[in-house]
Design goal:
This protein is mainly beta. It is built from two helices and 24 strands. The chain has a seven-stranded antiparallel β-sheet with strand order 1-19-16-21-14-11-10, with no helix packed on it. It comes from Mangrovihabitans endophyticus.
Length: 276
Amino acid sequence: MPAITVDDVLVLPRLPRLDPATTTVRPVHRLIRGCAADRVGPVHPPIDGIMDHQDSQGGGGTITDGDTQWMTAGEGILHIETPPEHLVASGGLFHGLQLWVNLPRAAKMIAPKYQDIRGRAAALLTTPDGGGLIRVIAGEVGGRSGPGSTHTPINLAHVSLQPGARLDLPWPRDHNALVYVLAGRGTVGPRQQPVHVGQLVVHGSGDAIRVEADASQDANVPAMELFVMGGQPIREPVAHYGPFVMNTRAELVQAFEDYQKGRLGVIPAGRIPHTG
């Protein structure tokens, strides 16, 4: 995939080898088939393609292969995304993810913030056998920290596994853990449950995530591609409707009123490019 690649992964730092005597590999708690998470959209890591965007704070820019835009809505921000004119005219592919990351009650109304995370800024490491490439977008994975800034402990990583390679990923026991299969097929968990493109794995408790790519992949899939994510549960009530995520219904009503009365601002005709 066009996301950041490395010619020789063996020069990268490696994940530690896990001690089977002291490591609990997380079991599969739930396998969601045909998950609709693989869509364009407030964390957007595009894998292929290009997208222009603007917001009501006057910011804007372009994200492309391997980049991540991380928008913290806070007390309110308007945002639009469009493919560039040349892509509309010529046609092409955009392949990316939209993730909604909840904020704790104490941070719900902070000032809006935008993070323009370039693919080259991701921390890189490989598996002990050199068969995997891990790009750390946020949090800490295997001792490497990603560039994304978060309000609660969160880990996000994009992983490429070559056919037959295995990922044993250390994962904090107090975090939940999800793996979304972007491409390819393989097995997951200690019982080697089959998993393929478009499926989301919800893990049970433990301190490591295990995924193994099948030795044989389709001709158009050079590697199994995974998006690995999780964090400390916030454990607060959630009320959501449309683009708003709050703690109570009354807060949702207030959010819609603020939007309808223009309190979230307007998106100007021009834009100021984000620089980081």
